[in-house]
Specification:
Elements (H helix, E strand, L loop, with lengths): L7 H13 L2 H8 L3 H15 L4 E3 L4 E3 L1 H26 L6 E7 L4 H15 L3 E7 L2 H9 L5 E6 L6 E16 L20 E4 L4 H10 L2 H6 L1 E4 L2 H9 L4 E5 H5 L8 E5 L6 E9 L5 H13 L1
Parallel strand pairs: 3-4, 3-5, 7-8, 7-9
Antiparallel strand pairs: 1-2, 5-11, 6-9, 6-10, 6-11
Helix pairs in contact: 1-2, 1-3, 1-4, 2-3
Length: 298
């Protein structure tokens, strides 16, 4: 029986290839040449005595066994990173490298006022940020690509721990000259199902908006086209419909320079919870709690 153990580097190459589906892009993401990554995976296959990847000129296809090995590799790499985190957590609090995903409906509105103060108060912290949809961010967390995620709940996150940051109200945004002259609090019944513009699938704000309205017909008729809140605001400003915005975006000035008006949605569930989440039993829990405190202070 072979006693060969794959190296972490080989597993990282394999996972990168699985994620990107292309040798060149996987090598770029791994900061190595394509030949180095390809050779590392071939060596892994040779020493294990199995084929993990079927190669052709146009397609990279993982075998059934290859997919199983990738799943296991994700867990091994995550455990290795948590071992490093354990050592780091024994030192100075909230120091060293920390990778955080932030969803697009939070990042441009909270981070500009939060990051300068964090850099000043925590000079030993190297915070690496990536902006991803809620769906992609949670997947990055579970696969160990990031250490924590700043997102809006409710959203299916799996088994995680969380720290509450704030509650964020939902607003209805509409053209300034809307003939119905909407009231100060807009009831869901006033939302025209044929004119509602929402973000694409994968953004939790879409689900939060639909849940707050509690009108099943909106899910079927809403136009899910926007790739960002700024895009949706421009569409509303050009009288193409109306949309939902979080209060933090309105407060940050997203409507500046437009003829768009935003008023609170009148609904018991017209709020989303801003939270920081991390993997359950992470050795860096104290760091994440400190980071949450910093976010709350922002």
């Amino acid at each position: 029986m072979s006693t060969y153990l794959p190296t972490l580097k080989q597993l990282q190459y394999l996972v990168a290839l699985h994620e990107h589906g292309h040798f060149g892009r996987a090598a770029e993401a791994s900061f190595v040449s394509q030949s180095t990554l390809s050779a590392g995976i071939r060596e892994l296959e040779s020493l294990l005595g199995v084929t993990l990847v079927e190669r052709s000129r146009r397609v990279v296809r993982f075998t059934a066994l290859g997919n199983q090995v990738v799943d296991k590799a994700h867990r091994i790499l995550r455990e290795a990173e948590e071992l490093a985190d354990l050592v780091q957590a024994a030192g100075k609090p909230l120091a060293g490298q920390l990778r955080m995903s932030v969803i697009p409906t939070i990042a441009p509105f909270l981070l500009p006022r939060f990051l300068p103060r964090l850099r000043k108060e925590r000079p030993d912290l190297e915070l690496f940020l990536r902006e991803e949809t809620s769906q992609d961010a949670v997947e990055s967390l579970q696969h160990g690509r990031v250490d924590c995620v700043l997102l809006a709940l409710p959203f299916a996150t799996g088994e995680v721990e969380k720290a509450h940051i704030s509650d964020d109200e939902l607003y209805v945004a509409f053209p300034k000259d809307d003939p119905r002259d909407p009231p100060d609090l807009i009831p869901p019944s006033m939302i025209d199902e044929g004119r509602l513009l929402l973000l694409e699938d994968g953004h939790c704000l879409k689900d939060h908006a639909l849940a707050a309205c509690n009108r099943p017909e909106l899910r079927a008729s809403a136009t899910m086209i926007g790739t960002s809140l700024h895009t949706l605001v421009q569409m509303v400003d050009n009288d193409l419909g109306l949309t939902m915005l979080p209060k933090m975006a309105v407060d940050a000035g997203i409507l500046t320079g437009t003829e768009v008006v935003a008023r609170p949605l009148k609904s018991k569930s017209a709020t989303r919870e801003i939270a920081l989440i991390w993997r359950k039993n992470s050795p860096r829990r104290d760091d994440f709690e400190l980071l949450a405190e910093e976010l709350r202070a922002g």
